[in-house]
Every structure is written in C-alpha cells, then in structure tokens.
Amino acid sequence: MTNNRRNFRRATRWSAGLLATTMLTGVAGTALAQTAPSGEVGLEEVVVTAQKRSENLQDVPISIQALGTERLESLQVNDTTDYVRFMPSVSAPTGAPGFSNFYMRGVASGENNNHSGPLPSVGVYLDEQPVTTITGPLDVHIYDIARVEVLAGPQGTLYGASSQAGTIRIITNKPDTKGFKAGYDLEVNSTAHGDFGYGAEGFVNIPLHEKAAIRLVAWAEHDGGYIDNVPGSFVFPTGAIAVNNAKEVKNDYNEVDTVGARAALKIDLTDNWTVTPTLMGQRTQADGGFAADPSKGDLKISRYYPEGSDDKWFQAAATIEGKVANLDVLYAGAHMRRWIDTDSDYSDYSFFYDTLFGYGAYTTDDAGNFINTSQYIQGRDYFKKTSHELRLASPTENRFKVVAGLFYQKQTHNIEQRYRIDNLAAVSEVPGWPDTLWLTKQLRTDRDYAAFADGTFDITDQLSITGGIRFFKYKNSLQGFFGFGAGYGSTGQRQCVAPLGSPTPIVEGGPCTNVDKTTKGDGHTYRINATYKITPDKMVYATLSTGFRPGGINRRGTLPPYDADFLKNHEIGWKTSWLDNRLRWNGAIFYEKWNNFQFSFLGANGLTEIRNAGKAKMKGVESDINWLVADGFTLIGAGAYTDAELNEDYVPNPAAPPEATKGTSLPVTPKFKGNLSARYEWTIGDMDAHVQASAVYTGSAYPDLRISDRSVIGKLPSSTTFDLTFGVERDSWRIEAFAKNLFDDDGQNDRFVQCASSVCTRVYTVPIRPRIIGVKVGQTF
Prior knowledge:
Layout: H1 3-11, H2 13-22, E1 33-35, E2 41-43, E3 47-48, E4 55-56, E5 64-68, H3 69-74, H4 80-85, E6 90-91, E7 103-104, E8 122-126, E9 129-130, E10 132-133, E11 136-137, E12 145-152, E13 166-172, E14 181-191, E15 196-209, E16 212-223, E17 228-229, E18 233-236, E19 241-244, E20 256-268, E21 274-287, E22 300-301, E23 308-324, E24 327-345, H5 347-357, E25 376-393, E26 400-420, E27 436-458, E28 463-484, E29 515-535, E30 538-549, E31 565-578, E32 583-595, E33 598-602, E34 608-612, E35 615-630, E36 633-646, E37 672-684, E38 687-698, H6 707-713, E39 719-730, E40 733-740, E41 748-752, E42 764-767, E43 772-780
C-alpha cells in the first residue's frame, strides 16, 4: 500500500465511524422538488412497478430502494458496481466486469460463482424479463434508464426461484409517441495510478405515427487500466524448473471496452392494446485481471499467462399489454443468448501442489522430461435463456384487486473449461484436446414452471390485507464430461459410463460421458401482508413471506444432488412523509430464517462442491430519508444494518469437527453499509448550476464462511469513499466535472486464493477502483 493511500485511510476512520452512527439505513429514490397546487414545494412522487402495477412508492408495503433517472445521472452510475454502492441492502463481490454475484440482507454462504454451483439468491430483471444467468446476472450498462428498483426480502410469489433474498429490476425508458427527443453525452476521465478513459452515449426517440414510436440507444466506453502486471519468477521443486513472466509484464493491464445498443418499438394497436418489441445487446472486453497481490505492492500482481474476458450477449424481448373486459392483460417473453470467453492464469495451483505434494513428477513431456507445469484456463461458456409470463390484473381502484399469472423459463449453459499445460505428454492429455490436463465439457439445463396469484382486500379505507402464493416445479440436469484423461489420475475418463467414443458423448466435444444426472422438485412460496394507513401520508405494514432456490447437480458425479433451500422473512415497515412532503422517511425491520441452505466450497482437486449446510438467521433494519431542506438544497441518507449468522454448527463430515460453529457470521455482507448525499442547485446568470457531494461507507466482512478459510484469506476491510460533482446547464447544453472515490480509498471488493486454502496460501485482493476524475459534456434536444 502506498503511503498516501495508507495515510488517507487513517485520516478518515473518524468520518466512517461518524457516518455509521448517525446515518439512517436504506436507499432513497430521487428527491427532486415539485410544486403542489397549493403553491408549496415538496418532494416529487416516485412511481414503481414492484407489485406488477404502477404505484406510488409510498403506497407499496415492501422495502423498496429506487434510483430514478436523475439520481442515476447525478451519481455518475454506469454499471453494476456503481449502483450497488448506493444500495445498502445489496452486496456484490466483483471479480471483473460482468462477473458479479448479488446478495441481499446477508443471505450469503460464500458462493464462488461456479458454473455447477447454486442458482443466484437474488433475481435480476431487465424490464419484465429475468436476466439472471446460471452463474450471475448481465452487467447492463446504465444509460437511458428510467430507474433501478431493489426489492429487499423474499419476492417468491411474484418473481419466483432466483428471488429468494430479493429482486433487482432495471427499467428502461420506453418509446414515446408524444414527440421527438434526443440526447448525447461525451466523457473523458483519468484513473489514479492508471490510464485515461472515455465514453460516448446517445439516444433518439422518434414518433413514427400518432400510435407508434421507436427509441434507439447506443453507448461505447473505455475504462483505463490501473493494475500493473509486474515482473515475477518462481521455481518448481520438481525438476528445478524456473519460470518468469517477462512476456506478460505491462502497466495498467486491466483496461475494459464496452459497446452496446438498444432498439425499442412501441405500437398502439388499438386504444387498449400495445405491443413493445425490444432488441438489446452488449459486448464487454476486459484485458488482464482485476486482482492484486499485496506482497507485490499496491495495485500490482505477477501473472504468467494472458488473462482477460470477452462477454457478449443479446436479448430479444416483447411485451403485449391490453384489456379484456376490465382486466389488464400482459404477456412478456424474451430470448437471451450470452457468450463468455475467458483466459486465466492458474499457476498458483500448479506451484503449491508441486511444492506440497510433488505433483510435477506426474506431468512430463513425451520424452519423460520434467516441464513447466504451470496451468492456464481457457473458458468458453454459452448461455441460452427463454422466459414467458402471462398475467392478469384487476383494476387498482377496486376494493379487492388481484394479480395472477403463469411463468415458464428454460436456461442452458454449455460449459467448456480447459486446463492447459504446454508441451504436456500425449498420454496425460484428455483425448482430442492437446495439452489439456483437465477438461469440463458439460451441458447444464435448468427449467422452472410456476403459477401465482397475489390479492389485496381493502377492509377499510385505512386497513388492507394482502395474500399471495406461488406454486412451482423445477427440473435441473447436468450432463457431459469432467476430469482427466485416462493417463492421469483415477477420475475423468476412467469414470466414463462407456468405452471411449461409444456411445457418442451426450455433450459434443467431450471424449465420453461420466456425469448424467437430473434432480427435480416442487412446492410453494407465500406472502401475507397487513397494511395500515395512519394518515394519507403515513403508513405501516407487517409481512410474512418466503422464498426458495431450486436444487441442483454436483459436477463430481459421486456426490449426491443438493436440495432446494428456503428462506422465511418476518418484517415490519413504514412509509411516511412529513413537513408538507418536504421530508420522506421509510424503513423496515426484518428477521429471517434460512434453512437447509446451499453452501458451495472448493473440495478435493479444487472442484466446487455444494452441500446443504444447516440453518442461519438474519436480522436487521434498513431505512431511508429524503429531505428537501430548502429550495434547491436536498439531503438523501441511506443505509442498512444486518446481523447474519449460523443458527447451528456447520458439520459437513460427522466424523470431523464443525467447519463453522453456531454464531459464526455469514460472509460477504457487512454489519453496516450506508451513504449520504447533499445536493445544492442555484442560478448563475442564465445558467442552472449544481454541486453534489456523496459519501459511501461499507463495513468489514469475511469473504468465506469456514473458519479455516478465514484464517488464511482474512477479512475485507471497511472503506469510505467520497464523490463530488459540479455542473452547469444552459438551454440544451450541460457540462459536469466529477470525482469518484475522491480521496483514493483502498477498499476491497473481494479476497480469494486460487485453490483450497489448505493448499494455496497466496491471498489475492480485488481492489475497488481508484480515484477517477473526469468531465462530461452533453446535450438534450
């Protein structure tokens, strides 16, 4: 760590503590002013669609965190990492762009995002369609977005399987037939300790007819690198083979390029029926990696093989909305495809296994000579996801109102993970795959079926009761090949169910088939809610709700499937407005039980294993304040306190001691996370000016559950970051200068080792992005 970063960290400890003890908890929506008919200035209404219909956020009895268009723009939000900072109930360890896992309210066991691991516990939706792939959600670029909604707690009745702990919804701006509108933004920035970045974004809304319009959006962004791949060397004990990385040394080697586009067409077929087809695609190319080795210095690492990722996806979606009698009808369907190519250095695995166990003696060239046994991984992953939902909703003004529907989705993941060693002897190769010591060539298929209903009855003008239920079925399978060739080890080809080449492998490209398993299940989730309006602008509610994740298949065929896990949530909350709607205070207190939860970890040979690990409990409070202090001056405070821990010992092997004891804190989620923003707007001559300052505090947390892993990997430190913006607008033009992580705090997104912590002891960190200073110029017309 450099002296400057270390000194700043010490200097801001007092501010982090002050923030943690004085700030309320939650996340707020946009806090812009509007003038009421009475002439009073108050906060603008925030409209959300969390309950599958448009409603004022203050009338929805759910803990909702919402960031609207203006708030997203003012916070300089571009991607997942940016908006998660301002969502206190959400944690998202990030290894690289496009590889985030979302966790909410502490519902996390330390999942490692493996392709054969559990499905996510937080569902992510792009408009009406789920975009949570098996190993994580799409990292959608945030531009021309109406709002990002975060629904905390189980959303199992309306959103289903991967909404066990909560749901995140990204709502795009739709085509508008009322008139032409267009805009663009150009940006240039510089990253501390790194390189320059730049970007361009633009949209155009074109009415084609009084009943049709098209909206076109595009973006291109370059993020400068800030991790240096510095010179390094080591010696394999077996054969005394010396290795160095001279060919890979490069400063700022983790640069990222993102390009994407969206096209949406809206057609009003009649006064009651509208169809909106949408095409959206994005490509993110990242060179290098985003981890650092603290032993090498601040933001430095030594890698011996090329690293990077190429993440491409597109989605074709359509919604059809209309009325049948007095019922609102909506169909939403989508088909998504995603391709991810990755290259990773896996030298640590080879070095530590050779140092401890002499594994290098088993990997030679064809002449029997010892070789550089460093491994590197080439991954080629292909996803397909199709979803359909049909739902009906009765009029919201009715005393009894209901939303009901049917849902189906199928997602597949064609997995290719190739662990290579250059010059490897043919006898040790996986047949048909030169220089490949280990191969995973599998097809994972996950199917979900559901029927749901959610109804609300207004007992009086003040008291309402809501009940919801979702009946589900799932069927998940894993087929194909994993492991070594017959000339190395006792797994892999030696475990195939038929001789090599006969019958034809289930998954094309695999030498044979050694795993072909299916698991399925069914059940239901439910929600019961009571809401009481004390006054028209003050409401309290109580909720009992449940959520679930389907079970799945371990890729190590000798292990049994893992079962579904369930979460039960008890929650009381409030939505209130004060001072003639100049102050908005919302919040929730929750207590959750997580039974038979799915726990993934690195087992023998570095293979991910999933087991149902017992019980856990989570309790906490989340709240938000939006305060229009004076005309032009707004304060927004937000945060969440979460206490998540095991409710019984985790004992995967009854013959061995517990690997984590009752009372052990669950990983990933800090005890406290919060943010505070102040914005002032005024007039300079004929220009509108603004200045905004934001602070984000994230508490410390362990990245893993097991005590043995914690002793090696350590704990993520707390961090406090400050952002600052200043801008002016005149007519259609605007210019804004900004700084993100102004004081260059050295926080961490994650910590990890490359294989089981009992073997690999070199700890890597994933640092948060260093300070960025930039200028953005734009125009709307």
